[in-house]
Write a structure and sequence with these properties.
158 residues; 39% helix; 5-stranded mixed beta sheet; 5 helices; alpha+beta
């Protein structure tokens, strides 16, 4: 069946089975390789994308459920003011090791800072719960989120 979806600000038409996970539509049909397959059960966060700004596990989201929602992947986060600051903080603090989970980590952190510009440690823990990093760079991830929040504050004050 043909589905028209908005991905990264562009209307796209895909002809796939309605039960196909959004992850495979993005990767195999639209050649967007940022979201990764990790666990395939929505537990690790490697496949995280935004649906209307909400961090969503694309490996368990059937394409038929996307509807009119705007889909955003890591590929456009550099265009998002919050995503851009997070990516800068990620690089400055040398967060990635293997890098496999980092797109999902940034997608979840972008939603957090968009909704909560100055999150507490508990708010960071809650927002990032379910994003697994096999290299255990959680301390640097937290530091990068806090750094991006401070960069955001500095930009607002100017």
């Amino acid at each position: 069946m043909a589905y028209t979806i908005q991905v990264n600000h562009v209307q796209r038409i895909v002809d796939v089975d309605g039960e196909m996970p959004l992850l495979w539509v993005l990767r195999d049909e639209l050649n967007l390789k940022g979201p990764k397959l990790g666990c395939g059960a929505g537990l690790c966060g490697a496949c995280t994308v935004h649906l209307d700004g909400q961090a969503t596990r694309s490996c368990i989201t059937p394409i038929s459920s996307v509807g009119d929602s705007a889909v955003e992947t890591i590929e456009v986060m550099a265009d998002d003011p919050v995503g851009k600051k997070l990516q800068a903080a990620w690089m400055e603090l040398d967060v990635p090791q293997c890098g496999y989970c980092q797109a999902g980590q940034i997608m979840s952190a972008t939603e957090l800072l968009t909704k909560t510009p100055h999150p507490s440690d508990d708010e960071i823990n809650e927002a990032m719960r379910g994003n697994v990093c096999r290299c255990c760079s959680y301390t640097r991830i937290r530091a990068a989120i806090k750094k991006a929040a401070s960069l955001r504050s500095a930009a607002v004050e100017k």
